[in-house]
Amino acid sequence: MGLGYAGQLLAQKELRWDRKTIHKGIKELTSGITCVDNYSAREHYKAEELYKQNLWLQLVIS
Predict the structure, then answer these.
(1) In this structure, are residues 11 and 5 in contact, taking their beta carbons and an 8 Å threshold?
(2) Structural domain count of the chain
(3) What's the rounded Cα separation, in Å, for the pair 34 and 41?
């Protein structure tokens, strides 16, 4: 906002924030509307489910 694009780069570098997150936050502040992520709706699999066949093969071979 005050520093513009260079401020976003500085925050990314110094604070290790993602520029997309900074940009989203600035949009929220200027518009007054909260952007809601649907993070909980994303599918997350357990590692055992993703690599079930590889795990089974490793157990059989050993």
Answers:
(1) no
(2) 1
(3) 18
